[in-house]
Amino acid sequence: MPVTALDPTSALVVIDIQAGILARPAVHPVQAVVANVVKLVDAFRARNLPVVLVRVGWSADMGDLIKTRVQAAPPITSVPAGFSDYAEALNADPARDILVLKHQWGAFYGTDLELQLRRRGVTNIVLCGIATSIGVESTARNAFERAYNLTFAADAMTDVNLEAHERALSIIFPRIGEVGSTDEIVAKL
Prior knowledge:
Number of helices: 6
Strand content: 15-25%
Oligomer: single chain
């Protein structure tokens, strides 16, 4: 479903646009994805709407990394210096933005994201970031279960796996929200 509207109480939630994630391979050029993310960030800030910058990170001993019995081990075994640093292009500012540190795929569990959104009366979340099928999709599913209206900026996200990226955009996201381009979303603000 194309983007039909945005609630007046919308917030932008940006997933994992950070040094360690941007350094990994992706199916779309990350520079173009980041440029679209920045366009959204600037548009939300210009309208005094909440901008939530989410990043993933763990303690030096990796004690807060999820450890379960899975076939594909987590790609992180130690935290490189600067891994969790927000991309410079975001101009992250704790006086202006809501900064969230998560320790797993989704941005709701174990963080104060829902509290921050509810206290601001947010009813619509615009999602973007990396990786589409992991951090963005996990956060989207959790937001849907919390009855947020969801909007996805398709050209402001990418993944390490093209099939997973396309599946999220064509199958999962249309079931729980509206999918459009950065320009379409900015035009609805």
